[in-house]
Design brief:
The chain has about 400 residues and is mainly alpha-helical. Helices cover about 55% and strands about 10% of the residues. The strands form six sheets. A three-stranded antiparallel beta sheet has the order 3-4-5. A three-stranded antiparallel beta sheet has the order 12-13-14. A two-stranded antiparallel sheet has the order 1-2. Helix 3 (about 70-90) crosses helix 4, helix 9 runs parallel beside helix 11 and helix 10 runs antiparallel to helix 11. It is globular, with a radius of gyration of 20 Å.
């Protein structure tokens, strides 16, 4: 396998197709921030602004400015989005709304902790890019609020009745694994390492279930037990696989090669479990007991699931030398590039039906923005570069 050729394929797609699409079509030059509801050709079909997607785009361009090349257009894009978020995205006390209208007026209350998480990531990277202390303060203050809400992520907006079926969800410790590394320059080293160890414990000792053949579940009871309910039986293969490359990055940071090995094994287990044997691609949701799901989109094939899988497979291969990882990488790479990449226009499709046919021709919306495709291309490019250097 020509790692250098593969690396250039991912890099070229990132630089020549994906980033120009978002720079050209998403920036709101009148009010600031970004449009994310973009059709196949990049035309705007809705102007509402979703905080977590706004923050993800700020993070994306600031990160590339910090780690790849100090391009003025990337920094300008990140700063204008950051300034819009600073002014309109929260209530003045770093309580981040879920969505705004085009002009910046709040539409949905700050119930969603992921608005906070991506805001912290965005302003952490903006601080690195600009040296602006105000950005660092926003990131750190937001992180402190996140920590205070770990036990009750939705706070007063939680719809569940207290005490009857309280569950904790995998999404929070999973994303915290990534957040800890993203803002490590703002955290005390001892506190950072303790946070990383806590996140690893939650992911690998609580939600990872050896008694289920090594699967990761989406929800457990507060005391860490399995729940035989819709939520308790839920498996999201892409979520689990994405978390494994976060864990691999933490394993490198903590110098724990055995953790990289375990994360690689889980990646392969989840992929073998989640792969559609009839049509190819990875299921969105599954039920661990094989019962019907409440999510009607359970059998769709989503862009982020496959892109995150490519990252985990490449990192697992680089860190452990697992041939099974690379065999799977080739298979997922072929599926992803043949089906999600639009042959006529830049950016990738996000939603396929079970058979792998395009279900929605949008390039961005309420849930898809400037994040998984460019981040995935970046991560795969850099990992393939390291493999080619070997």
């Amino acid at each position: 396998m020509d790692f250098n050729k593969l690396a250039n394929q991912y890099k070229d797609e990132l630089f020549n197709e994906i980033l120009p699409f978002w720079l050209e079509h998403s920036q709101d030059k009148k009010y600031g921030g970004y449009f994310t509801c973009l059709d196949r050709e990049g035309n705007i079909f809705d102007t509402d602004k979703f905080i977590w997607l706004q923050a993800r785009e700020v993070w994306m361009f600031a990160m590339l400015y910090n780690k790849v090349e100090r391009r003025k257009e990337w920094l300008d894009c990140a700063v204008q989005g950051g300034e819009f978020l600073k002014k309109y995205g929260h209530d003045g006390k770093c309580k981040w709304y879920f969505s705004l209208n085009r002009e910046g007026a709040p539409l949905v209350e700050p119930y969603n902790i992921f608005s906070y998480i991506f805001a912290a990531m965005a302003f952490g990277q903006l601080n690195l890019a600009t040296g602006n202390q105000e950005y660092a303060d926003i990131a750190r203050n937001t992180f402190d609020i996140i920590l205070s809400r770990i036990e009750s992520p939705k706070g007063k907006w939680d719809k569940s009745y207290p005490g009857t079926r309280s569950l904790k969800t995998f999404a929070l410790p999973m994303i915290m694994c990534n957040l800890a590394l993203e803002i490590q320059h703002l955290l005390d080293e001892n506190f950072l390492k303790e946070t990383m160890r806590t996140c690893v414990h939650e992911v690998m000792d609580v939600f990872y279930r050896p008694e289920l053949g090594g699967l990761i579940v989406e929800n457990v009871t507060l005391d860490g037990q399995l729940s035989d309910t819709f939520e308790g039986r839920l498996i999201n293969p892409g979520h689990a696989i994405e978390a494994m490359w976060f864990v691999m990055d933490l394993a490198v940071r903590l110098n724990r090669p055995e953790l990289s090995k375990k994360a690689t094994e889980i990646t392969l287990t989840m992929l073998n479990y989640g792969w559609d044997k009839e049509y190819g691609g990875i299921y969105y949701y599954m039920d661990r007991l094989g019962y019907p799901l409440q999510q009607l989109e359970w059998d769709q094939k989503l862009w982020w699931v496959h892109i995150e899988t490519l990252i985990s497979l490449l990192k697992g291969y680089r860190l452990t030398g697992s041939n099974e990882c690379f065999t799977w990488f080739e298979k997922v790479h072929e599926y992803t590039w043949n089906r999600f990449k639009d042959p006529l226009h830049p950016e990738w499709f996000g939603y396929l039906n079970r058979r792998g046919e395009v279900l929605l021709q949008l390039k961005g919306g309420k849930w898809k923005g400037c994040f998984h495709v460019p981040r995935g291309l970046y991560q795969c490019w850099k990992t393939l570069e390291k493999l080619s250097e070997k």
